[in-house]
Amino acid sequence: MGRPDLNRRQLLGGIGGLAIAGSFGFAALGTGADALASGADTRVRYWNLFSGGDGYNMIAMLNSFRKDHPDIAVKDSTLQWGSPFYTKLAMAAAGNRAPDLGVMHMGRVTGFSPGRLLDAWDVDLLAKYGVREQDFSPQLWNRGVIDGKLYAVPLDIHVQLCFYRKDVLKKAGLLGDDGRMVPVTSADEWFDVLKEAKGATKKGLQTIGFWNSDQNFQWWFFLAFYTQFGGTWFNDADTEVTFDTDKVTQVLEFLRRHITDGYSNPSFGGLASAEQFVNGSPFVWEGNWSVPVFDTAKVEYGATPLPPVFGKPATHAESHAFVLPHQADRGGPANEGAHQLAAYVIRHARQWALGGHIPAYRPILSTAAYKKMSPQNEYVSAMDHQATEPKVWFAGSTGTLAQRVGPIVVSSTMGSAKPETAARRMKSELTRLLATKNPMDGKTAAQGGTVA
Amino acid sequence: MTTSAQTVIRPARAKTAADTATVRRKQGFQHGGWFVAPFLTLFALFVIWPLLRGVYLSFTDANISGDSANFVGLDNYREALDDPLVWDTLGHSAYFTLLVVPCITVLAFFLAMLAHHIERGKWLWRLCFFAPFLLPSTVAANLWQWLFNPGTGMINHVFGIDTPWLTDKSYAMLAVVICTLWWTVGFSFLLYLAALQGIPDHLYEAAKLDGANAWHRMVHITLPMLRNITGLVIALQILASLQVFDQAVVMMDFLPGPEESTRTIVQYTLEQGFTSYRVGYASAISIIFFVIIASFAVARMWLLRKGEEGVR
Amino acid sequence: MTATQIRVSSPKARKPWTPSQILLTLLGTAVSVVFMSPLAWALFTSLKSETEAVAVPTHWLPEKWTGQAWKAIFETGNITNWFVNSLVVSVCVTSVVLLVSALAGYGFARTEFRGKGVLLGLVMAGLMVSPAVLGVPLFTTVQQMGMVDTYWGMILPQCAPAAMVYILYKFFQGIPRELEEAAFIDGAGRWRVFFTIVLPLSRPSLAAVGIFTFIASWNNFLWPYMVTNNPDLMTMPNGIATVMNSYGIQWAQLMAGGLMAGLPLIIVFVFFQRQIVAGVAHTGLAGQ
After folding, report:
1. A160-317+386-435 adopts what CATH topology?
2. B78-311: CATH architecture
3. Do residue B64 and residue A90 have CB atoms under 8 angstroms apart?
4. Residue A360, Cα to own-chain centre: how many angstroms?
5. Mean pLDDT of chain C
6. Separation of alpha carbons A365 and A137, rounded Å
7. In chain A, N or C terminus with fewer CB closer than 10 Å?
8. pLDDT in tens, C10-25
9. What CATH number should be reported for the domain holding residue C111?
10. Could you tell me if A55 lies within 8 Å of chain C, comparing CB atoms?
11. Which stretch, A267-276, B176-185, C45-54, has highest mean pLDDT?
């Protein structure tokens, strides 16, 4: 390290100094490289949670929007679905750094502090771009209305489905004349179907994949079957828990039996169950968003709502909805751009239906093109018997309720807790939650919370 | 370098009065406040203030919106002590720590001995054992999530097994531990390596002359000489492992793992604060956790001091 | 580069291949293979097509080599954004940390001021505070300052590391006082002495602190994860974990992105191995 190094050292020092100065300058600008590079007049920042086939369809729709509206730059960001998404959206809104447009599940809107973390939609502006109340099912539209203001505009209805492979079921004699799976009306019938199907299944594959270790899916399946049973959660005033542990135990036993009777292999509980289905496993219970996955895999398959084994048909359903995350200075071209983009996507949701979702914008449902879509036409009826979470502040997709109760369902399905024990634990958890105050307004569910 | 953490608390005043007087006259070492001011400003804003704020918030029902909150006394602490998830998640962090700390210490020592004693290509061994530590935690976690993947993962394929690593509660935490070992052992490995290189050669040469074999030299020279560094490695690992978060959440896709078996106390605190918006309650859990961490640190200092007194 | 000088500086006669050396080398090779194979697996996965990556049965080498995943991550653009953000944040954090902790370490080691003992004790207590322990109150503090989703919100809370002050404090204590006293007698001011005498003497320690800070900041996930929501502003570790690309988990791309995040430091390590090893050992050993 002698004298000759000096020049090199000065050079390095100079470069280092420039790098440091540049970094500080960049940090001071504070917008990120992408925003700097964007030259469009209006920039709409749009956050969503769509990955997989949904992501593909959403991007296709965004790209056609971009082509039609070159003056509006849409910066879409896909965050990982689940609590990170809601956490980030809430924190961005609380910190006044929210995007112009966001997507969330309808069930989450009430607990998401409308007015505090969400801004209301300008209904006239929406109408200007072609989205009007009369084009939606009133029940669905009204889920987004709180205190007379519209906070969420529905995009779709999505449901949990029973996917089946036509080739395997045909071999097992379980396909009807119409090429669809034979109807099932009781648990015994369902297990008979599984037994037949198992005989026709290739070696090394499970008969049914149903996400046995996933707390979200298990919760949704539980919700569906418990609703089929006519089970209830709370009384009307939300003061008492009416959760029926006998019914719950039966539902949990039903779920557990898929593993104990050898139809489902716990090792292939997660994503692997879809891989197994593609490889020839006859059944998988999945969200309708798997439609494009199985379409791409060129599998010969059909999809029905979850089998009505406990009485009336019901399957878990939720809706994606557009929301305006709270911005202190909401307004101007970015806000109008958000309205325009949301309206565009809602009205062009036929593309979205490729992802298996049922469009909320009803004019699409009556088009011939939609009626021809398969298997969408096989399960479109599911929107008429939805199993949804109770309407309390702690409910909603990956909300507190699902996070607390979902793992208990899993523990029963996986066999680490007895169904009766799990049922009791679920009930005590519900009791506890009912007495808990909503952190955003300090009220319990019975005191009204934010639910109108 | 061999001084203990004791010196931490005691400012240096080894100089004689005469020296100090000279210096005083020159005013050279006076008014150092300006030197420490920038750091202390940042430190006050981002360490001390949040700590005090955490204490304050833990007595309120504050939520994430930053709006004003109500004073609720000890309610949050009472709830936390009754909340089974606080104990479960503390247990998970402790279980993780119990698995990781001994494994990492032994593995790091073993790797360091290897790298120290192989005479050729030292840089290569150092690179291989240390490189994983240079990866971001989330990258390491994604990588192991991919390796543990049931259908397409390499681990099950190589060993010809069918273990549901990430979906069964009896394996999930183990998977996180294995990822952590691979990812972080490099740091402790380097500490050991540096310590090994610091052992004077003449000790070994003398032992050789006395006819001690390699095993004896390790047991009677190497291990005793490494006692301090082992204490340091263990202490650093305990503190870091109790605070585990990154690997666990990323490997489990931000969920609490199968049957909530990998949810750590840090994860639970953040869920309470950011997912359930209960900033007050989350702060109370944070303070409880801080007390636990602090008592480990104090216990270590106490042990060190006791050890030193023993030597004296 | 400097590597040659280093080689020369540690001359060592080549020793013969004794049986024990052969055995140790074989063992070392085996362990290294185990340690490197996950990285190799990531690399090979990143060079497969997405469908081949998830094909059963799993195989090591791509049947058809393709740079498609690498091309895709650059085309979607997020990765390059995050890379720049990581660089900006890490450079800022490192330079601020170096400056303030060198000043503070010197101040604590060499100067007298009222309340020094108490303050030093406070700094030591700060060693136990991290975003993992007190993340929620730290977030609300930063939220109050209006710095959620800003670079400063990411940078500044990483700029008060008590550990670095402690390391430099220990180092400055070891510099002979006489050097400074001589300069004072010659009439040099305090700041001049600090910048022209003390700092040049402490270059290795500063390098250690700088390198370690840079690694820690580049790899930091938890704090940036808490404080940034806007994907435009995310750093590499945060972006990779929380923002998936819109086509689902695509393992080849995920592995390519991970390597992008990890490779810079690994390459730097190959070139500056000696300094980094010394740095990590130094920072760690100082805690002894």
Report:
1. D-Maltodextrin-Binding Protein; domain 2 (3.40.190)
2. Orthogonal Bundle (1.10)
3. yes
4. 15
5. 85
6. 12
7. N
8. 445 566 788 889 999 9
9. 1.10.3720.10
10. yes
11. B176-185
